[in-house]
């Protein structure tokens, strides 16, 4: 019983945690990036919205954000170049918070609480890497 209690309170070496985080974030980012690239009116529609906020060159930024989210999400799911994918997604989330959501505050309509949570997740992966169940780990072991 004492050993179970110690493990539940102090264990910080569970290999499944980064996998679950990568999978969840990857699915979310792919969904958002795919919409920016391929939903009706996009990326031109997304570029127009970016341009209305003064973000230029809006079309290039729309493509870059859509690719970062879609490709980055796929890389997170597979655990391939996890830190590189996470770093690009950190930038996307910082831009989204600062240019889109900051004026609405953290909570409520248009707030940045969701983007902040995504940012925390990708920062965590940037720090710890893809974990045991990743392509990064397979490559690392072969090297």
From TrEMBL:
This is DoxX family protein. PANTHER family: INNER MEMBRANE PROTEIN YPHA-RELATED, OXIDOREDUCTASE CATD-RELATED. Pfam families: DoxX. The chain crosses the membrane at residues 20-39, 59-77, 84-102, 114-135. It comes from the Bacteria. It is a multi-pass membrane protein. GO terms for cellular component: plasma membrane. It comes from Colwellia psychrerythraea (Vibrio psychroerythus). It is found in: Cell membrane. Belongs to the DoxX family. Keywords: Cell membrane, Membrane, Transmembrane, Transmembrane helix. The keyword Coiled coil does not apply.
